[in-house]
Amino acid sequence: MPNKRPIIILIADDDAEDRMLIQEALEESRLKNTIQFVENGEELMDYLHNKGKFTNKEQHPTPGLILLDLNMPKKDGREALKEIKSDEHLRLIPIVVLTTSKAEEDIIRTYDLGVSSFITKPVTFAALVDVMKTVSKYWFQIVELPPNL
Fold it and tell me: Rounded to two decimals, what is the model's pTM?
């Protein structure tokens, strides 16, 4: 039986323009899920542990999917990914790396750390919309996500 609980998408990206474009691309792909944003790896971990400005669990519920940029200040996506996947309460959350990096080392390392998918950010908005349509169809219509994250 499909899970009818709305799935929260948490986007961790330090680039304000990229955050806006990703949000617009998700809206363009008619995704109705709630989207939350954090700007660096420290905020990502605070959000996931409901610390700092993210203490209200109702306003900042556990996400069902994290879109993670690798190159962020304070704590980069690689460090945050390692922390999330080593935490027994968080490691089931699917994480999709969405980054400008095409480095083979990043691809190998992030999969080794347990990332679900690695996507290089498309250059054009139209291509980003296509990617977001595919991501949302895959994660919210095809895949069975773990219940009650």
Answer: 0.89
